Predict the structure.
Amino acid sequence: MALKRREQERQNRRLMLLEAASQVFGRKPFDEASIQEVAAEAEIGIQGLYEHFPSKQDLYEAVMVHRAQLFHARTEEALRPPGSPLERLRALALAYVTLFKDRPMVLPMFIRDRSLFDWGLDSRFAPALRQLYLDERHRLTLVIQAAVEAGEIQSLDPEFLTQLVLDVLQSSLHTMHHARGSETPETCVERAMSCLLHGVGGRP
């Protein structure tokens, strides 16, 4: 019983450190953030932090992997109910937006690393994160392809459509973030979906 309690306490401490690290890495690029700042954010000693993560890179990668796992769990749940491809796309978008609504400082981290991945640039984090990004994009692309086959969106290059969805969602998230809590995830998603489906051109 005591061993189980100690393991639970260790897991709780690890989650607390991941949350503190996402705040610090969200405010600063990797090279400018420090382990000392993470320890201060978590109100823990440096040695206590190193007991869980041997280096800053290990900590950063753990934050991103944890975010990806949370996102995967939310999308699995979001896609469980039956629905049309557009309904599934909306459900995926809501899972994506809600994750960043709960953890807004993770979004800058995601944007920085995803841009490197999207443009095929080398990153020190590529070995740990590349497959996670590939899995996320593949899931989204499958939903988009289903929407194309159902005639719900234009039959354009799937990679272009996947990138377009991600970029429009990112733009809508940017607006939601600057609304400082006055906007719901549903509003953020509907703005993005409206732009995707109807464009931004004025009416004739």
About this structure: The chain has a mean pLDDT of 88. The domain at 1-54 is CATH 1.10.10.60 (Arc Repressor Mutant, subunit A). The chain has two domains: 1-54, 56-198. The radius of gyration is 19 Å.
